[in-house]
Amino acid sequence: MRLLLDIQANRTIVPFVHQHKVVGCIHKWLGPNDWHGQSSLFSFSRLSGGKAVKDLKGILFDHRATFFVGAHNSDFLRQILRGIQRDPEMFDGLIVREVVIEEDPDLSGRDLFYPASPILLKVKQEEHRYKHLLYQDPEANEILMLNLRKKLLAAGIDDADAMAQFVPYEGISKEMLIDYKGIKNKVSWCPIRIVAKPETKLLIWNAGLGNSTGIGFGAIR
Asked: Are 53 and 62 in contact (CB under 8 A)?
């Protein structure tokens, strides 16, 4: 299930580096809860509807912005919805004015998906360092699959034949560098093919794929 958020803006400039602010909103809306620290079986998209203005180092939203939050557990989204109803203000003048609940679609006949936020893949190295993988790296699909299997295990879904891979020839594919609290993350914007049971596709549709979906990476549409 997803929440589709329609956000009021008034010629608002949002800094390019704002992903941590969206995470802060989600945690505010969740409030005191038992979700923190658990496997991140949720994801959220980038803010849409704006225009980049390089001179102002931000994104201009004339009248409205949109984004979505998806989760494997519908109770998670219900808690966010209650939080939005209590306090719809976000940041930099953005205010949630409407929320639409999107029920799970039938994905049984679909296997091609597109990013709604950049996909992060990382492998732990020595001395607590991480190597970031991009869609064209030889081992990228292997790490993508390892991450998928971890999500399946966390969600209790048995799908041994599930497969996910980058398919750059199916659409726009590019590398990006995303700053999250001062950490530069090399990420991929690339179509994904998922061949799996319908419930596995729904899990990824809602929870995202790759690393750090809980802080704004790996959402798909």
From this structure: no
pTM score above 0.85: yes
Buried b (16+ CB within 10 A) or exposed e, 84-107: beeebebeeebebeebeeeeeeeb
What is the token pair recorded at 77?
A: 């989204």
Strands 58-61, 12-15: pairing is antiparallel
Q: Order of strands, edge to edge, in the sheet holding 192-195?
A: 112-113, 192-195, 163-166
167 φ/ψ angles, rounded to the nearest 5 degrees? -130, 75
Are residues 122 and 215 in contact, defined by beta-carbon separation less than 8 angstroms?
no
The strand pairing partners of 58, in sequence order, are 15, 53
pLDDT in tens, 33-50: 765 545 579 999 999 999
Name the amino acid, one letter, at 51.
K
Rounded Cα distance, 55 and 41, in Å = 37
Q: What is the pLDDT of residues 90-120, one digit of tens each?
A: 999 999 999 999 999 999 999 999 999 999 9
**Cβ within 8 Å of residue 97, ≥6 positions away:** 6, 7, 8, 64, 88
How far is residue 191 from each of residues 6, 36, 119, 153, measured CA to CA in Å?
25, 29, 10, 24
Closest CA to 206 of 122, 135, 101, 99: 101
